[in-house]
Amino acid sequence: MLDIQTHMDFEGQAKAERWSRLIITFFGVIGLVYGAVVQQFSQTVYILGVGFLLSSLITIPPWPLFRRHPLKWQKAVNTEPKSQSHSPSESSDEGKKKKK
Amino acid sequence: MHTVLTRGNATVAYSLSVLACLTFSCFLSTVFLDYRTDANINTVRVLVKNVPDYGASREKHDLGFITFDLETNLTSIFNWNVKQLFLYLTAEYKTPTNQLNQVVLWDKIILRGENAVLDFKNMNTKYYFWDDGNGLKDNRNVTLSLSWNIIPNAGLLPSVQSTGKHTFKFPTEYSASSI
Q: How far does B21 lie from chain A, in Å, by closest CA?
């Protein structure tokens, strides 16, 4: 399988959704006006189709501009490996004490 | 919006919603238009015969035979919400047996972009002018009118009658000549 990262960060997702709706609405209005002027509804649909393709190109692939605000993960905490002097039963006793 | 498929789904769904709005706007822009216009109709030959109607019973019914002139200009009816017009020529009359008779004699489909200026002379009818009985002989008041059915891209399909009609009468005797 292709191992392409397709995530965006949350700010990028909001930006992408807003841009896709703006582009499609804008082309829809342009298409309606142009179609009414030339009296061909087919032109309206074609212009909306162009708007859809442009919006898909801009907002579906995860461009770097949608990754400008990556999440700040906390630093990883390394759990110490248990030393060999502890026996398995003592470890289980410690587990039982903690449950109180 | 966190995978490609989610974003793609949202974009497609929004595009379809916008398309629905645009189609509704197209319908709104033409719903109050007046689609009537004038038509000049005239009859040239008018005959009536009395022959057995072999499709129904073996009784003899009146069969009218007419040729007509039709002249009209329908280019102003077309707009971005009219895909085609279905024209039909109707003969309307009254007989002793029936209060109202309407017979379609001829029809035509005009697509958007085709020539919509009609000027037919001495045109034959497409369909037989059968009467349901013997009411055509000596019928003084038969009215021919042209109507059209608007086939839209989005919205209503109104049926509009032209403002021009033509009234004629059938002869008092049956014609003996074979047509």
A: 9
